[in-house]
Amino acid sequence: MENQKTQQRIKAIYQMLFEMATGNLSFRILKTDQNDEVGKLSEVLNNLAREMHDIILQSGYVNPHYSYQNLVQTTFILDDKFIISSFNAHVPEALYYKSEELLKADFGKFIAPQSFNIWNQKKMEASLDDNYHSTVQLIFITANNKLLPSFCTISRLRYSDKIVISSITTILQELLSDASHSIKIATEKQSEAVVMQNLYDYILNHLEEPLPTLKELSVLFDTNEYKLKLGFREFFKTSIYNFYHEERLKRAHLMIRQTKIPLKEIAIMNGFNTYLNFYKAFKKRFKYAPSEVDRGPNEAV
User: Do 86 and 146 lie in a common domain?
Assistant: First the structure.
């Protein structure tokens, strides 16, 4: 068993080297409690990627990356009092808590203030309906005080008082939103490259939400509409909207292949108001329907 774990950690190092070679400097090797040579090498690579990312920005360049290569599915099992009785292995990784800090804790403890009202409403609904099933966006707060927005499916188990909460989460150690949304993302001192990088990251982290207007984005990133529009096209060779639309469909395709979430819910989780709109956009982009994607052993029932 120990040899198998070591092989998995070495595999993660090879993957890290590959990601860096392809320009993805946001990828990180997850830390473990083992302080051996493999662990030290992993930390060196993480620090190197972080430093390279900073140097590239300071030099006036942007660094496109592929954030959802770290896509994981988190699952919580709650009792009838909404206390966590179990969870899958990805939950501690996503929330940066130790397993013992999660077990037997109130699920609401890990919900950010911005989602308190929504969570309380869902708790009441789930308590009253034995067949309850709902999909909603909740914002988690991690152990290092970062906000983690995530679409969650809340379901009551049949013939049981247990409640299952599942979500798709992207682990982004450096790109999670700051807890305070009142602070502007960019300042006058930042270069155009930093603004474009921040806009790029912002879009990838808000694919489930409607794209703000160009005017709203220019206010958020403390620049003007003209610079934002032309700058993004110059750096990424596409428009802001086309990039947003393309990345939503690519993430949806990945979710269909790697999870058992129903197609209609995947459409909602990627910002499409109706399944029909999602179906048309998906088929136009990939030349086949969402239902034709091979889901393998994860196919939904």
Answer: yes
Residue with tokens 């129903």: 262
Question: 178: number of CA atoms within 13 Å, CB side?
Answer: 8
Residue 23 lies in a domain: yes
Based on the domain organization, do 81 and 133 belong to the same domain?
A: yes
Number of domains in the chain: 4
Does residue 257 have a pLDDT over 50? yes
Asked if 87 contacts 77 with a C-beta cutoff of 8 angstroms, the reply is yes
Three-class SS state of 239: coil
154: enclosing H helix or E strand: strand 147-156
| Biggest CA pair distance of the chain | 60
The pair of three-digit structure tokens given for residue 298, joined into one six-digit string: 């994860």
Contacts of 211 (CB under 8 A, 6+ apart): 203, 240, 241, 244
Residues 6 or more apart from 269 whose CB is under 8 A from it? 135, 151, 168, 208, 252, 255, 261
Query: Could you report the per-residue pLDDT of 92-129, keeping only the tens digit for each?
Result: 888 889 999 999 999 999 998 878 888 999 999 998 88
pLDDT tens for 197-223 read: 888 888 887 887 888 999 999 888 888
Is 179 among the domain residues?
A: no
Per-residue tokens: 191: 């270069």
Lowest mean pLDDT among 35-39, 105-109, 142-146, 148-152: 148-152
| Gap between the Cα atoms of 174 and 46, Å rounded | 11
3-class secondary-structure state, position 21: helix
Q: Are residues 89 and 164 in the same domain?
A: yes
| Host domain of residue 271 | 243-298
- 13 assigned to some structural domain: yes
What is the three-class DSSP state of 169? strand
